[in-house]
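Attaching the record inline, Q. Sequence:
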Amino acid sequence: MPAREGQDERRRVERLDARGCIALLDDRMPLLKFFGFGFWVAWFSVAYKSSVWVNGVEATATVVSSMFFASTISHACTLLVMAVFYRRVAAFAQRLWFVVGGGLVAALGCVLIIAAGPAFLPSQALFFVGSALTGIGTAALALNAGLLLCSVRPRRALKIILYCELVAALMQFMVLGLPQPWSGALFVLLPLVSAACFAVGLTKRAVPAVSESQRLKPARAFYRFLVVVGILGVTAYFGKGMYQVVVSPAQLAENGSVTAFVTAVCLVVFVIAAALKSSDFNFGHLFYPMALVIIFSLLLTHFFPGNVSASVVLSGVAFELFDVLMWYLFSYIVFQSKASAVLVVALGRAVIALGVTVGNALGAVSMTADANALPASTVVFVILFVAAITVFFLFPEKQVDRLLLPIPDEDEPDAGVVDGLGDGNGAGMPAESGSSAGESSEEHEGGDGATGGTARVGRWKRACLRLADEAQLTEREREVLVLLARGRGSQSISDELTISLYTTRAHTRNIYAKLDVHSRQELADRVRACAEDERPRI
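Structure, as predicted:
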């Protein structure tokens, strides 16, 4: 017994030493765990946009399309299951066995795909099993990537996403430039490297500020937004599905390299812009320009078949940047509204995977189907019409602004000690304890200071209650609005009303949405205008 206890103790110490070494590595290289996201993106680029795992005997890239279909379908189904059981999944989503297991399953799938080729064990069943395993394994990695990005402030998440996407583009260049069997080996290793990077960040799991059981579902606008995202995915990959039926794997790989290069150039521009801009970079404003490029690229693919390669590259670049935007928006929504990160990421990535799968399949079918039964032009016009209606009419740009409400300044010092709701420049509404310097003479004219100050306080509170009635705020939201009008910060409001900081932020978000304001300055202007309407006219 003492010998066994001694062995157990030694094993425990060894485990602690290993965990300590990994934790030290995380301290020395804090970005290493985030680069797991970059290797995850690189695998998708290599697997879906090249043919390093194809032995070169195929006449067209339909084998790539088949692998893409099986992999993305299993990927989407796995993420949908995670979204349905998101509270249970949250309990183990960042466990070591879950992350490492995802990498191992994806790597096993890659091995089976290569083994199913004509040079080894030609088997269609083995090929599809391997493709499905890659989708399942990468779904676990995708969820962990989303949880990591949602754990930091959106501005930092944007920079990390851009850096990782650049790493992925460089990795794709390297894999495509290597001869066999080295390129095939990296195709297998990329999921393992991604899981290893994620595992580095699991040694010191931070306690979340809001537990998963306390988090709410996203706003209804988020689900409408996902419908638009799915339709844009169909639009972007319809032309690619048509193209893969008629080109060789070598041509597909060449176009993938051009797409990666142009995407990398665009990402460098975004990185420089985000670094030079002192305020938060509103990346959400790029949603509609990218949607226009995706729709325009489908028009080029169909009506200018001589330039189909250029249009496929254009749509590929647009969708790559669109995917970057989606990761940023998911992290922003989770951080701003404190919604479930598992639900937002799993559901969002599942919709994207389903959209691109349907688009790719429709494109391939339209090229091989009887033209008399279903002309390709009919399908193209239907997709373009649905995309235009949903993007520009059912979900206009104003809806995006409402979905991406400004993040309250909860990390700033209590604003109640300054003169108003100011955003750092002194602008804002006056605190309840007195009047602003610019209005002091008018407030105090004809009376003492106390009388003027009391009148000022009453008018501000009546203005808040009037706005609350007009916007049909709940009773708790009315209380929060009054405290916001006094210039109180989120933590101060939480202490005043004896509610959690998460609940205060949720009420603040709802107040912004119901009053149709997007910043504290706009809220201050609304209350000030309402208060001025009550001022006696002489």
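Confidence is low (pLDDT under 50) at residues 206-210, 409-457. Residues 308-337 form the longest helix (30 residues).

More tomorrow.
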